[in-house]
Amino acid sequence: MRKPLAIPFAFAFALALCGAAFAQERPEDRANLAELYPDVAAWNADAAKVEAQLKEFAGCRGQLGKSAARLLQCASLESDFSKRFGRLAAYANELLAHDTGEASSMELMQKLSVLETAIGEATAFEAPEILKVGRARIDAFMKQEPKLAIYRHPFDDALRRAPHTLDAKGEQILAAFNLSTGNGATTYNILADADMPWPTIKLADGTEVKLDQSAYTAQRESKNRDDRKKVMDAFFGTFKTFERTTGTTLYGTLKESTVYAKVRKYDGSLERALDANRVPKAVYDALIAATNRNLPTLHRYFRLRGKMLGVSDLRYYDIYPPLVGGGPTFTLEEAKRLTLEAVAPLGEEYVAAMKRGFDNRWMDAYPRPRKQSGAHMAGYAYDVHPYVLMNFTGNYESVSTLAHEWGHAMHTYFANKAQPFPTADYPIFTAEIASTFNEAMLLERMLKAAKTDDERLLYLGSALEGLRGTFFRQAMFAEFEREVHAAVDRGEPMTGERFSKIYGDLLRRYHGDKEGVLKVDDLYTVEWSYIPHFYTPFYVYQYATSIAASSLFAQDVIDGKPGARERYLGVLKAGGSDYPYDLVKKAGVDLATPAPYEALVARMNRIMDEIEAILAKKVKSNG
Ligand SMILES: [Zn+2]
Fold this sequence. Notes:
Distance between the termini: 65 Å
Number of helices: 23
Shape: globular
Strand content: under 5%
Number of strands: 6
Radius of gyration: 25 Å
Bound molecules: zinc ion
CATH superfamily of the domain at 31-180: Oligopeptidase f, N-terminal domain
CATH architecture of the domain at 31-180: Up-down Bundle
Structural class: mainly alpha
Strand order of the largest sheet: 1-5-6-4
Order of helices and strands: EHHHHHHHEEHHHHHHHHEEEHHHHHHHH
Largest sheet: 4 strands, mixed
CATH topology of the domain at 31-180: Butyryl-CoA Dehydrogenase, subunit A, domain 3
């Protein structure tokens, strides 16, 4: 089944929602949802159609092995209601995202969620039944009926799970229990997004700030060091008050993983999570081993950061202020133009598709009151087009985010164009390759045209910060997840205090506390409780593997290596037609080996060499 998936932008850059001078929002800067449905009545009519199709689909139970023709009929029916559901999801999600306070949109989302559960229940018989029919018979059907070819991969995916699939009754029970899971995550989200009693602090300049999530991401970048410390102390002090509570909610999520791993006969929670897309465990292990081996490079970055900030005793609250202040601002039109220029090496077809999206309201560009924060791409309306949501502010990070989200959008566009619906959707494992690839291309474009050393420093600094946040930090999260899930798999109880201890040890090791690189105060070891991604187990490692892969792909395209562009575009066009690790490997990047991680680290060192050379030149010219 094709599950709806919005791809959030994981690293909330500070979005200065108040007071910034935005260009006047024009109608063409708003996404046009009418292409999905003219109105809510049309949405409801389509939802009713899905319900009717589900009833029809019930007739497929016990029929899948009957004949090639019947199998095709049932598979086509499922494909059709899944596609319809994707379109419903795109509309409901984006409508709410455009105005999060609109009650009628919330109602649509609830209807959507009920429909999703109904689909899950209605299709629960399918996997066990396919297994019962067996590979031999499925293969024979495929030979008889060529139209079944588009289902080869989904069938193969179901068949390979035989050792982890229960009988029909068991699957039915698991599907029904879905409704009662996820409470740890829900409770956490309500606490962290709404109920948390955010503290108000007074900054050095006398302004008072209520330190909620978005104020925290903005204020932790403050140039004033005392303010940064005050901000982190107050913010994590608040989380510390709820260490017991968030320890319980996270433990609840981990226990769910353990139970599912157990009933599905996996060796552990990690094995189960990776098997969802047949990612070898060697990928996870290679990532964490490479990261640990290369901590000296991360420490070099922190030392350089200390030097550039003029701080000799670096603390954890010093990691966020930008290395270079100020910098140029960009209009939305400039951001679009720069992104188009950046991706030009990918060829005319890619550029033309992106331009078409820019010109035809696929994007909701500017911040507005009650609009969802951050940025994301919603790609689940297969026969319409991808939608992008931005909160464009005009700084360089905003331009980079635009390139990132449009990387997702083009991935969806090319996959949908090249693939039939059943194999179009791609997993996160390849998704973040397409987005971070575009960031790397944008950096190249900006560096090439930069006129001054200061401008170059700005882009290089931003790229470094991206590598720290997307590679090292996510790998650290991945290591944390591996450890705490294994503990729960072993039957060990977890508490907030124990999470802080494990996280704190990692935080200090990664930041070189012992080596005197950067000191981490005890209070900040509660940071794990601030990371919502931990409620989607073993998700974040894919940011790290993706940026490693995209660094290699981008380098090859920039260097003009023969076939590099086609290999990369091939990954996009393949969508979900093969297992993602295999797809990337076939395109030349093996994420189970050290090579891509070492290449990323080498790139990080090259950027630091360049920054240090510029700084040395500046010292010389100043002296
Ligand atoms: Zn992304």
